[in-house]
Amino acid sequence: MKRQGGFTLIELVVVIVILGILAVTAAPRFLDLQGDARKASLQGLKGAMQGAAGIVYGKAAIDGVENSDTVVSVSSGSTTVDTLFGFPTATNSGIGSAVAGLNDSQGDWAPVSGSVTSTSIQYTFNGRDTATGCNVQYNQATSASEPTITVNGESC
């Protein structure tokens, strides 16, 4: 009589257990893609703010108001941006006007409630005001320093 080849029940159970262990250790890495995407979007907004601040400063320098210690409006085409020391102020008419989409009510970004002060503003994903640890904070320029932009992404 010919002996049939195949796997024993024990071998099949061991393989299933090993696959289960691999799935448990690898699954969390793939399931957190939404948080990673939010953090990447925050980094993108930070880059957009830095680029816009540099462009506005260049326009302010051309207009000769880069050293002004009072709020001055700088215009470029149909866009007007409030500046202080040549950089956008921490308001909707400052950095909000400089970066496309920040003042758009249908856009992806909104100021965090209660985060707007006279020198800083925080933006988060529209409708996610409760995620205070998932935002970008813009601190306007002072006479001694350029604006600082900080990403807070620990709670995304």
From TrEMBL:
Write out the transmembrane intervals. Answer: 12-31
Q: What are the protein's UniProt keywords?
A: Membrane, Transmembrane, Transmembrane helix
Q: Which InterPro entries match?
A: N_methyl_site (IPR012902), Pilin-like (IPR045584)
Q: Which Pfam families match?
A: N_methyl
| Key word Cytoplasm present | no
Q: What is the protein named?
A: Type II secretion system protein
